[in-house]
Amino acid sequence: MKRKNVEINQTVVDNFERYRKIKLTPKTISSQCLPLAVAVTHPDCRDGDASVHFAEDSEKGRLNVSLNVERTKSFRFRLFCDDFMRRPCYRFESDGGSHENPPSPDCPLSKRSIPTPHFHRYDEEGRNVAYRTTDLERNESAYLADWDKAFAMFCAEENIVSQEGFHFRHDRSLFEKTEFCDPLEGVSFP
Amino acid sequence: MNEIISNAHSIFADVQCDFTSLWKMKMRGETVEFITPYAMLSGEYVSVFITLRENGIVVSDGGRLHEIAEEQMIDIETRARVHYADMLDKYDVLETFQDRNKRRFHYKITNKMEMISACVYDLARFQESVANAIYLDTLFDEEESISSRYFKTRVKDLLFEKIRQFSTPDNRFEPYADETIRHYHFTTGICELKTQRVWLGMSISRSNLATYQQAVKSAEFGFRHLLKRPTVQNPIFAAILSPISEGLKNNPTAKLFQADMDEWKNELAVSSYSYDQIASLQSMQPLFAVA
């Protein structure tokens, strides 16, 4: 029985040019405000979608933003093209596990583990790859401290332009802490 | 003596150093996360979370294994059961289900600082092993995996095609999805813009017993949840069934699943279609005409 890799994205492999163009084509966010609602699965999270318009072709994009209003360093941005594939095409994760990039002849072991915050994309072989830009390396704490700055960085990386005055709309928590989520908070271990 | 042998000690020191550099640490409130060098098949490195409770030092998976099982739509106790139980035993790992977050946490607990390393090792190897079993479980059974995923993809592509085919300036249809619908793995949502009615379809593959059971269970779960916490008003529910495989046609257990499904389909007003019925639609009306 033939075994395949868990995370090879065949859609990307078969349509790599289209996948590349999704990133490279200049895009705009149609709305000026992105309302964020309480997420179904995580009461501390606020999430919402904005439509993304592609300048040159008929791709239709959707930008999903997810913030944690209690542990503000945990957030993510994801660019979807629902007509193309179900999973996000490109994304940014501020928190979560480190990612293991595939082996390559020039990549030493120490550089294979990519901690968060990082971006995700797929390579030509459909493998999910994580990376950090120089800007992110240099200004990591500033981006983790400010959602708007982090969002601007994500948009710059993915060639998305938002309108003047674009903002997120959500309630703020009374318990806000500039921290990462603690998954053991409130959990009892008998 | 070759160069490797003559430099063995310094090469060893370099390798140790590179391996060590894979370990990372992150502060999370009253918990510290250690990111280990053990990577799962998904590409994610295993993390362990350490905190202090009244009864001792707790080293836990933070509920991540449960999340992975959910993402892969695996019931960890039935599908990866043998391996899961073996690994719990082998590494002496405890588990607790928390109602608050509906999550199962795996952990070890100790009162001795010098035992933290052993606990970290055991939790890390446990997670790596069970997570990989979960991922492999969705792959090695290639025929089942291909046919069920293929069926879902075929249904989704077909419905998108129908949306394109039947959407007119006077009566537009669009794909519809929100976080809840995606979370419960609905295959496709269709919104009739004129009336704002939403049709939600779930594909159910009947290629083998395990897939069939999984699909029926998760479909029922999705429909019931949408009814309890509606994110759309009055959704129209539909199940799209694959042809039943030869091996299941007379299988008594498969007949039980069918009877079970007939019951909740009735209760939850879920219409039923085959792939061919959707393919031969001449308009969207039959899908939206249900009361």
Summarize the structure.
The complex is a heterodimer of chains A (190) and B (291). Chain A has 190 residues and is of the alpha+beta class.
Task: Explain what you see.
Chain A has four helices and 13 strands. Chain A is 19% helix and 29% strand. Chain A is an alpha+beta fold and 190 residues long. In chain A, strands 1, 3, 4, 5, 6, 7, 10, 11 and 12 form a nine-stranded mixed beta sheet that branches. The N and C termini of chain A lie far apart (43 Å). With 291 residues, chain B is an alpha+beta fold. In chain B, helix 8 links the parallel strand 9 and strand 10. In chain B, helix 8 (209-228) runs parallel beside helix 9. Chain B is elongated. The termini of chain B are far apart. The interface between A and B is large, with 42 and 52 residues.
Biggest sheet features of chain B = 6 strands, antiparallel
Q: Rg of chain A from C-alpha positions?
A: 18 Å
Helix content of chain A: 10-25%
Order of helices and strands of chain B: HHEEEEHHEEHHEHEEHEHEHH
Label the structural class of chain A: alpha+beta
The portion of residues forming beta strands of chain A comes to: 25-35%
Average pLDDT of chain A, to the nearest integer? 88
The helix/strand order of chain A is HHEEEEEEEEEEEHHEE
Total strand count of chain B, please? 11
- Low-confidence runs of chain B (pLDDT<50, min 5 residues)? none
Q: Got a strand count of chain A?
A: 13
The multimeric state of the shown protein is heterodimer
**Strand composition percent of chain B:** 15-25%
Largest sheet of chain A: 9 strands, mixed
Low-confidence stretches of chain A: none
How many individual helices of chain B? 11
Broad shape of chain A: globular
